[in-house]
């Protein structure tokens, strides 16, 4: 199943961690300064040499420091403004100005790419603020110190700043730091603590009626995405979008918000909506020319395209990213390798896929133990790669590791997809007992994510979000109506002067009102019609579900009835001494089993229209090998493509294979001679297929005529070939070779569901 942010967003999901970390940088101390440098310079020019001028110079320096983009000229202007503020503060003995200047110097130095020097200056700022009892500024210094060192150092310095802001009663700054702490814990995959801190931050912002809380909602959506809670993820992503639109946010943050909405929809398998939001996010990121944002969103976009089987489109996105947004970030390069591995694996280009798999293993390790943030995503790519190559030892090692990680983090979405891979692997190996167990776990976990009450909550969220959009439009129309009424009142003041114009205007208003009534009536009729259509659609959907259930029940009962017939024949054979009669009953049992296998597969599958013939032939041959105990005598060679056929074709072909292989086992290798039986089923172009059953045994007599031969098996094979409008050939070719060519009738063709989440 595709998903994998997916799922695999998903999944599918962890590719925005670096974006989140960059966003921390943008939201740190003084990051909200978006004033116009020219306007600040005009104020400085007319101000006197006092503390107000110091503050203006510091504001100007922060403004240049936090301008969008990375330009040397901006940093040079920031240094100049800060230097002037420091000189003036020294002249005035303005201690607060001196402390702020030292802190700004540390920030500028760090922005220039010299973190060691920046840390040294920040420590000087801390000593100065402590010696001069500048308590609030001291908190800002601790925030700057939190930009350096290990995760523990960052947490410790932010918590110290938080305590100081609590002392001075700065609630907005407390909320800011709680938000930053929440981000850090989410990046470290401690989602529970991160979410708790973010909710505390949100509550504090709301208590002071701070309107710009879209960033907190955005981070809550990310936290719930990582825990696999799709409902809460979508809820907070939509709240982030709603709040950002309300406060008219046009910053780079909108790219992150749209990205998270896209991730939430991808987790819910609404891939088209997800793709739309990723393109919206990408447009904003490109506008700001932010390489990290562009790459993070492009990576998510590629995941969606791959899940929609648009591998070539995904490859174009990657090539464009490599050309126009190159990066030296090793993490981003590894993400690119992960995407290329997935694309080439999907395109069946195993040689190229192996190149990128080796690169990932070389960097992250065989168990991705060197990666923390994107570990699940990397492990999922490993498991899909090993499954495609049938490397079962490596595959089972990886999926067990994924299971332990997802279980520990309660990530039901990723856990369910892992059990689906487990089920597919067990089925491929013929371990049906474990396959059933993992399929049941997959369905149970998947249902817990997507069905029942959660689906209602998701629909409710979407309806509420759309309703609020409509309410805004209604408010806008109401405002427009008020303006119109004001205009009418103004016109009425001069009505005696412009009587003729008033008459024309009155007639025009009446005409508009008439049109309004007509339109209102038409809209009412359309609403009624739409409601009728929706009711009919619901009825049709219910009938379709019932029909699918009935069809599965029919297959189940047909399979059971065939098994009963087989058991009856087996019981009857116990009372017969005639060898020919026993042989006839045994042949009938084989034929019944060949048909029973088809109905069993259709009952177990979500696809009720078609059956995978490669699976069916493998199962049928395994059954016959056990029945005749041919392990030491006959070697079976299967060369079958993944061909999907309906029951009308699958049953005749199964009976033909049963008869041909039965004859080969009995007659092709007399006196315990050994040999090979070769079975091939391939698509020879469009809807044309070829079935070959051949052996290297003694063959048939030269004068053998299949049309005149009074053989039940041969007649049955010829009759079944005619039933599917096929061409039957039988000849000696170093043994006996039976060839059947036929064309598939696609009038009622179904679609096989064999997708997977990445």
TrEMBL record:
GO MF terms, alphabetically ordered: kinase activity
Alphabetized InterPro entries for the sequence: HATPase_C_sf, HATPase_dom, Sig_transdc_His_kin_sub2_dim/P, TPR-like_helical_dom_sf, TPR_rpt
Organism: Flavobacterium artemisiae
PROSITE patterns according to UniProt: TPR
Residue spans crossing the bilayer: 493-513
Domain of life: Bacteria
Keyword Transmembrane in record: yes
Keywords: ATP-binding, Kinase, Membrane, Nucleotide-binding, Phosphoprotein, Signal, TPR repeat, Transferase, Transmembrane, Transmembrane helix
Domain Histidine kinase/HSP90-like ATPase: 648-746
Protein's recorded name: histidine kinase
Signal sequence annotation: 1-31
Pfam families from the UniProt entry: HATPase_c (PF02518), HisKA_2 (PF07568), TPR_8 (PF13181)
PANTHER family the UniProt entry points to: ETHYLENE RESPONSE SENSOR PROTEIN, TWO-COMPONENT SYSTEM SENSOR PROTEIN
Keyword Transferase on entry: yes
EC id: 2.7.13.3
Record field: catalytic activity: ATP + protein L-histidine = ADP + protein N-phospho-L-histidine
Segments annotated as TPR repeats: 255-288
Gene3D superfamilies listed in its UniProt record: Histidine kinase-like ATPase, C-terminal domain, PAS domain, Tetratricopeptide repeat domain
């Amino acid at each position: 199943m595709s998903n994998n942010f997916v799922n695999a967003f998903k999944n599918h999901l962890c590719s925005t961690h670096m974006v989140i970390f960059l966003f921390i940088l943008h939201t740190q101390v003084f990051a909200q300064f978006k004033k116009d440098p020219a306007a600040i310079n005009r104020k400085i020019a007319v101000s006197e040499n006092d503390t107000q001028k110091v503050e203006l110079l510091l504001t100007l320096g922060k403004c240049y420091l936090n301008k969008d983009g990375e330009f040397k000229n901006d940093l040079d202007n920031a240094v100049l403004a800060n230097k002037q503020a420091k000189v003036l503060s020294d002249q005035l003995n303005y201690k607060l100005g001196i402390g702020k200047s030292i802190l700004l110097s540390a920030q500028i130095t760090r922005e220039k790419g010299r973190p060691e020097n920046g840390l040294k200056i920040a420590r000087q700022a801390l000593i100065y603020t402590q010696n001069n009892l500048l308590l609030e500024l001291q908190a800002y210094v601790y925030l700057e110190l939190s930009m350096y060192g290990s995760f523990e150092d960052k947490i410790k310095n932010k918590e110290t700043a938080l305590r100081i802001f609590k002392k001075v009663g700065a609630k907005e700054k407390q909320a800011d730091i709680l938000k930053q702490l929440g981000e850090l814990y989410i990046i470290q995959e401690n989602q529970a603590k991160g979410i708790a801190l973010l909710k505390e931050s949100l509550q504090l912002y709301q208590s002071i009626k701070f309107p710009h809380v879209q960033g907190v909602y955005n981070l809550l959506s990310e936290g719930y995405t990582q825990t696999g809670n799709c409902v809460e993820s979508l809820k907070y992503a939509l709240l982030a979008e709603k709040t950002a639109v309300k406060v008219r946010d046009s910053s780079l943050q909108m790219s992150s918000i749209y990205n998270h909405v896209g991730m939430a929809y991808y987790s819910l398998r609404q891939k088209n909506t997800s793709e739309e939001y990723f393109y919206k996010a990408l447009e904003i990121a490109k506008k700001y020319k932010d390489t990290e944002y562009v790459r993070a969103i492009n990576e998510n976009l590629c995941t969606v395209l791959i899940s929609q089987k648009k591998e070539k489109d995904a490859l174009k996105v990657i090539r464009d990213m490599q050309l126009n947004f190159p990066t030296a970030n090793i993490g981003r390069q590894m993400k690119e390798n992960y995407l290329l591995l997935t694309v080439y694996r999907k395109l069946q280009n195993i040689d190229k896929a192996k190149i990128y798999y080796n690169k990932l293993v070389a960097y992250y390790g065989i168990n991705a133990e060197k990666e923390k943030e994107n570990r699940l995503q990397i492990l999922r790519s490993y498991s899909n790669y090993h499954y495609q190559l049938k490397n079962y030892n490596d595959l089972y090692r990886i999926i067990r590791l994924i299971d332990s990680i997802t279980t520990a983090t309660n990530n039901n979405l990723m856990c369910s997809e892992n059990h689906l891979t487990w089920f597919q692997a067990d089925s491929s190996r013929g371990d049906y007992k474990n396959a059933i167990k993992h399929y049941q776990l997959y369905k149970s976990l998947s249902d817990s994510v997507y069905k029942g009450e959660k689906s209602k909550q998701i629909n409710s969220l979407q309806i509420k979000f759309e309703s609020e959009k409509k309410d805004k439009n209604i408010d806008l129309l109401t405002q427009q109506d008020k303006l119109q009424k004001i205009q009418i009142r103004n016109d009425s003041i001069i009505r005696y002067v412009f009587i003729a114009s008033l008459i024309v205007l009155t007639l025009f208003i009446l005409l508009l009102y008439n049109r309004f009534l007509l339109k209102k009536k038409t809209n009412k009729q359309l609403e009624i019609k739409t409601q009728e259509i929706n009711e009919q659609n619901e009825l049709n959907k219910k009938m379709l579900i019932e029909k699918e259930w009935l069809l599965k029940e029919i297959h189940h009962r047909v399979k059971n009835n065939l098994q009963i017939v087989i058991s009856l024949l087996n019981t009857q054979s116990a009372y017969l001494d005639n060898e020919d009669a026993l042989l006839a009953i045994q042949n009938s049992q084989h034929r019944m089993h060949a048909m029973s296998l088809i109905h069993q597969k259709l009952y177990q599958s979500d696809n009720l229209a078609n059956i995978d013939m490669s699976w069916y032939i493998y199962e049928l041959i395994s059954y016959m090998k056990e029945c005749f105990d041919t392990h030491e005598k006959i070697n079976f060679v299967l060369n079958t493509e993944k061909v999907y056929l309906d029951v009308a074709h699958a049953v005749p072909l199964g009976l033909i294979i049963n008869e041909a292989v039965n004859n080969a086992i009995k007659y092709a290798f007399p006196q315990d001679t050994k040999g090979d039986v070769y079975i091939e089923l391939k698509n020879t172009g469009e809807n044309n297929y070829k079935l070959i059953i051949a052996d290297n045994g003694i063959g048939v007599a030269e004068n053998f005529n299949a049309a005149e031969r009074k053989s039940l098996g041969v007649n049955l094979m010829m009759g079944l070939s005619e039933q599917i409008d096929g061409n039957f050939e039988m000849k000696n070719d170093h043994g006996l070779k039976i060839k059947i060519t036929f064309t598939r009738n696609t009038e009622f063709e179904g679609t096989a569901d064999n997708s997977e989440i990445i």
